[in-house]
Amino acid sequence: MIGFLRRILLIDIFKGLALTLRYTYSKVYTEQYPREKVKLAERYRGAPRLNNDPETGETLCISCDLCAEACPEDLIVVSSVRDPESRKKVLTEYTFDTSRCLFCGLCQEVCPTNAIELTQDFELATYDRKSMLWNRARLEKGWDRIEGHKVYHK
Amino acid sequence: MMETLLIYAVIPLIKIAVVVLAVLLAVAYLTWLERKLLGRIQVRLGPMRVGWHGLLQPIAVGLKFVIKEDIIPARADRLVFSLAPMVSFIPALVVFSVIPFGPPDMLSGLLRWVLPLFLDPASVNRVIESGVTTGGYVANVNIAILLVFSVSSVGILGIILGGWASNSKYPLLGALRSSAQMVSYEVSLGFTILSVLLVAQTLSLVDIVQKQQAAGVWYVFVQPVAFVLFFICGLAETNRLPFDLPEAESELVGGYHTEYSGFRFAIYFLAEYAGMITISSIAVTLFWGGWLRPFPNVAWLGFLDLVPSVVWFMAKVFVFLYIFIWVRGTLPRFRFDQLMQYGWKIFLPLAIANLVVTAAVMLKFS
Predict the structure, then answer these.
(1) ipTM value of the model?
(2) Do the chains contact at B40 and A24, CB–CB below 8 Å?
(3) Considering just the CA atoms, what is the radius of gyration of chain A in Å?
(4) Is the pLDDT confidence value at A153 over 60?
(5) CB 3.0 to 4.6 Å from B92: which of A131, A149, B140, B274, for a disulfide?
(6) pTM of the full structure
């Protein structure tokens, strides 16, 4: 009897309608990505950057080669020369192959001076493979400030 | 001479132009509303890019349809194929000629203001009092409801012709389904309307609304069963979900309009949405008091008359269109045997029973 009444009075259909009405005026989860900046998690790992000392402008890298050792893909190459006076290693070149990078973050974990860092930039697409190989100059500038790179969100 | 021309040619033509433009605009923005609402039901945004909140989207879509290639399948019946969308679309527009958007004296104020610019006062009065010009409708036909249903049945013919002429399997299946569905549901639709006609005792849509005003009650409260049946059968008549078996994107790849592209497809699309507006307008006219404000005879609610009667009409139609889309976003499509079962085993007996009871009650109390 109750089942019959439910069918006659279309109770289930009205329940469904109530549900969709609730959803109609609920919060929308769409992110208008190219127009708006995507909300990234704080721990998101994106484009690599080689940090400079903010005061002196000198690189923080001490050429210890730990990042290259830690990298599971062996995509970091650190080149350095030893300064004959101070007996310190001086960084000459640092290459980072983003085409092979899996963004595991082991390089920044292992870095004793926080020189290499994975930033939150993620628009890494390029027009050719060559430009996926980043040299020191590019790494130090940071992805979003490189000339010719179009930032899609303001 | 001048007056006759004005009464029987110029003013009706202007009215027709206004109604056609308004309907086309409403159809365009109905598609926008549908995409927006379906989006929101699915927790998406819907169109956002073209114009503010996608408001120019219908124009972009229309433009896209017009400039797209018009493909006619090689083995299709060319004449019928190109005729079918028109057969579907023109009746959908014709129906609006008898739908009353406002009371018979709706335009008298406007005419009194405009006409003296080119006529002397005596003939202005004659034009206004001719009884043809001032109504908020194109024509007050005394068989309006018959006209609506005979003409809109022709529109269904367009669907069947289109499916047949495509010479393709899916459209043919869609057309077959459509004819079966229309035959089963138009009968119940007719019976629900008959029971309203028994109460109103007139076939003119204008008179039906005025009878509702005189009775002081909308007919939905007199004929609730008829209204529910009318609404469900209306969903079926306009091929809307959960009865959109003739289209059935998932099974029939669009059904009768699978082979249509470009402008012809757009015309089918227009016809379907115009059909939605038609059914909503008729439901509003027959059951929800047409252009009347809520509680039309309660004096202290007189401030509601500040809102023009057209706006009341459009608001009611809007509510119906909203429900159409809302139902589409909620219910899945029926199976074909379910469709037939509901049509013949539930709706038809209910409609007939409702008609018989109405007739008996009317006989007893009149």
Answers:
(1) 0.71
(2) yes
(3) 26
(4) no
(5) B274
(6) 0.81
Residues of A in contact with B48 (CB under 8 A): 32
At residue A145, the pLDDT reads: 59
- d(C-alpha B176, C-alpha B160), whole Å: 7
**Residue B45: partners with Cβ closer than 8 Å, 6 or more residues away:** A28, A30, A32, B39
**Mean pLDDT over each residue of chain A, to the nearest integer:** 83
Residues of A in contact with B331 (CB under 8 A): 13, 16
User: Would the CB atoms of B40 and A25 count as touching at under 8 Å?
Assistant: yes
Q: Hey, what CATH topology would domain A48-141 get?
A: Alpha-Beta Plaits (3.30.70)
CA distance B131 to B104: 8
Neighbour-count burial for B296-308, b at 16+ CB within 10 Å, e otherwise: beeeeeeeeeeee
For chain A, give every domain's residue range.
48-141
| Predicted confidence (pLDDT) at residue A148 exceeds the cutoff of 60 | no
Q: Provide the pLDDT for residue B353.
A: 92
- By percentage, how much of chain B surpasses pLDDT 70? 99
Neighbour tally for A41: CB within 10 Å: 7
CA distances from B350 to A154, B235, B267 (A): 61, 17, 35
B194 in contact with A at a CB cutoff of 8 Å? no
Mean pLDDT of B205-214: 86
Whether B2 has a pLDDT exceeding 50, the answer reads: yes
- Chain B residue closest in CA terms to A12: B331
- For the CA atoms of B72, B77, B82, B86, the dihedral, rounded to the nearest 10 degrees, stands at -140
Strands A89-97, A48-50: pairing is unpaired
The radius of gyration computed from the CA coordinates of chain B, to the nearest angstrom, equals 22
Q: In chain B, what residues touch A29 (CB-CB under 8 Å)?
A: 43
How far A12 CA sits from the closest chain B CA (Å)? 10
Per-residue pLDDT tens for B184-204? 888 888 889 888 888 888 888
DSSP class of A52: B
Instruction: Indicate if the pLDDT at residue B50 is higher than 50.
Output: yes
Are the beta carbons of A19 and B330 separated by less than 8 Å? Answer: yes
What pLDDT is recorded for position A139? 85
pLDDT bin (cut points 50, 70, 90) of residue B126 is confident
